[in-house]
Amino acid sequence: MNRPRIIFVSTPHRGSTLATGGIGALGMRLIRLPLNIVSAVPKSVLEAAALNNDARKYQVPTSISRLSPSNPLFKALDKLPIEAPHNSIIGDRGRGDTPNSSDGVVPFWSSHLDSAQSEVIVPTDHGAMKSPKAVAEIRRILLLQMGAKAPKRPQTVLSVR
After folding, report:
1. pTM (2 decimals)?
2. Is residue 149 part of a domain?
3. Parent domain of 102
4. Closest by alpha carbon to 16, among 60, 69, 91?
5. S-S: 110 plus which of 9, 14, 105, 145, CB 3.0-4.6 Å?
6. Is the four-CA dihedral 144, 149, 154, 159 of positive or negative sign?
């Protein structure tokens, strides 16, 4: 049996600056955690996570705030090897300007992994998993993983390593 495999699609391995801009700020203002979750957080944790050591300025982290490229977790994870075989599918909104491209949410520099066994860049936005080219690449990878003869990579792929 083959080792488990990971297929990353539009994955922000190093975060997204969108989380720190105006759209991210708007999203964070719209997100409200249920009171029973917030009240279950111990006071010592709230104080430890407070901005400038001021517990009154503490905000419960959200999925958006955690996507900031300055999040220390991204920096720590980036240093760790990914043990399982893995492939990347990255969108670039059809501009073809890799390595300066973005899917509109995640920039190429955040999605790209030198360790990926293959990297396919598809001309699409952050919804790359809906792209027929991405679906064809996922199918190709899964067939290879099963040991079946996989079809050739799509000719319209912008970049393949």
Report:
1. 0.68
2. yes
3. 6-16+81-160
4. 69
5. 14
6. positive
Distance CA 90, CA 42 (A): 39
Is the Cβ–Cβ distance between 9 and 134 less than 8 Å? Answer: yes
- Containing H/E element for 24? helix 22-30
Q: Does residue 123 sit in the same domain as residue 156?
A: yes
Judgement on whether residues 37 and 56 belong to the same structural domain of the protein? yes
In a domain, 73, yes or no: no
Residue 148's contacts (CB-CB under 8 Å, 6 or more residues apart) are: none
CA 148 to chain centre: 29
Quick one: which H or E segment has residue 120?
A: strand 119-122
Query: What is the C-alpha separation between 134 and 130, in angstroms, rounded?
Result: 7
Task: State the alpha helices, DSSP H only, in the chain.
Answer: 22-30, 35-38, 43-48, 72-78, 108-111, 132-146
* Domains: count for the chain: 2
Residues paired with residue 6 on neighbouring β-strands, in sequence order: 86
pLDDT in tens, 69-98: 877 777 888 888 999 999 999 999 866 667
What does DSSP say about strands 6-9 and 86-91: parallel, antiparallel, or unpaired? parallel
CB 120 within 8 A of CB 134: yes
